[in-house]
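2024-03-11 09:14:02 DEBUG pipeline.ingest accepted 1 chain
2024-03-11 09:14:02 DEBUG pipeline.ingest length=146
2024-03-11 09:14:03 DEBUG pipeline.predict start
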Amino acid sequence: MKCPACDYELTEMEHGGVKVDVCHGGCGGIWFDAFELQRVDEQHEVPTEHLLRIQRDPNRRVDSTRKRACPRCDGVKLKRHFFSARRRVEVDHCPNCAGYWLDAGELEEIRAEKASEETVVKLKVTSVSMETIRFLYRQKIEREAE
């Protein structure tokens, strides 16, 4: 299978039961078949430290403006879009097989984005809980005053 970013030959790697194709020695990108990315996009999921440190050729140049072909589907071009509503990380997605191509560093960026989302959710839950406690405390004070 050829790398959609630099045309280097992709190498299959398996981590925690997830098989992905990486551009080892090329641009350092990763191909995830349908639903594989969802199994590794958060830090507490399948251990993928090897996927964060794929050997790259520093002389290999990648044109991010070039239309990329899906490495699985013959004649299908990948669509570039933001991974989430936060619009921080752009990824390439195949509309036919639902696979994802991540350029070097994008998996780490996705994980960092998800970790920050989890922190925000935890803070919101904490603040809602504090508001509830204050409300209940005021209710108690008002009843005692009656």
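2024-03-11 09:14:41 DEBUG pipeline.report The helical segments are 106-145.
2024-03-11 09:14:41 DEBUG pipeline.predict end
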